[in-house]
Amino acid sequence: MSNDEGTEIGVMNAGEHRLPGLGSLPRRGNFPGTRRIAPVLSVGMGLAAFQQFVDINIIFYFDEILWKAAGATGEWASRINVLTGLVNILATIPAIMIIDRIGRKPSVLAGSVGMTLALGSMAAVFAGTGVGHDGKPALNHMAAVAGLTAANLYIVAFAVSCGPVMWVLLGEMFPNEIRGAALAISGAINWLANFTVTVTFLPLLKGSG
Question: What is the pTM of this model?
Fold first, then answer.
């Protein structure tokens, strides 16, 4: 190993042992890669927000409410809630195993297509369903099975793509000099998007009822 390589590794290790903070984000003019880092940070923040704006947590947080609104009994709504959580856990396992084989970008793109198709199928199921006397969708058995299947396929598509891959990308895409601060900002954006989606769902649901 050359002296230059040893010096570079030493500088990187020293950077890793410094406590990260917002001050580690380089200001324009005092860091040679500033112009390259700004787009990377923007992409990281966008990925963090996108993961929540696909509305996956609406399924997890309000699953029982959604299926009751679709006409399911309280008992069946609770069972579906357990099922969707189990599907999410099981689908994450193969994602961990194949992420290095097929790559990050193909995983996210394939998952995004899968989520779009699954949500489109759900929308088609409910759009073609009549409304009962109680104002709730009157799903027949076939429509209920189709809607439940589409919902779980949506969860599978998320669990093998945007769910785990987003966190892997955030851990890999930032330079050492800003990794701590950039991860903190991206994580904050992720939770802010989660909060926004969560607090707006029930008003939207009531407004559509």
Answer: 0.73
